[in-house]
Amino acid sequence: MTGVFAAASAAIVVCMGLTLIRSIAGPTVFDRILAVNSFGTKTVLLIALIGYLSGRPDFLDLALVYALMNFIGTIAAMKFTRFGDLAGMEDEDSDEVY
Amino acid sequence: MASPIEVLSWVMILSGSVFVIIGGIGLLRLPDFYTRIHAAGITDTLGTWLILIGLMLHEGFSLGTAKLAMLLFFLLATGPLATHALAKAAFLRGLDPLQGRELVDRHEVDDSA
Fold it and tell me: ipTM of the predicted structure?
């Protein structure tokens, strides 16, 4: 059983590396946000798997908090790239993609 | 000797890792933002489903399974929502999807480079 958890954790760590490459190289800001969101999902899975790997399922609480924070972080980053501000909603009417 | 439920949980966790790897490779290799969303969607839904349900089968009927079910619900609700909002934001900001010949040409250039 430990071997299965270790193999799955290794696969997720490799995949997190690939995602990190995309988040650094991504041409547009949306690629980066997508990669960071995907990275967060993988982090949640990794925390849950490592909790079972080390015999401490209490790690699931951390995974729950991380899942919620990941979603809020993604939405906040999107709003920040759109408005340049987390509080206001004014549209600057720019056509820039990046 | 492993019980059938344990074997099923191994199979689900390992196939979930395979889907996570496929999603990661797709995120790196696909040519366009809108195609990369598909790759991220595989990780967010199928990989997460398989790994978390495999952990539930390993855990049995306990508090840990309730926490895993909550985790599954949150990831299932927030992952596609974030992806959809991201795609909509990108499209409204004027990021055009690659289409037709352009997509093929871009891919060939990537392969030869």
Answer: 0.82
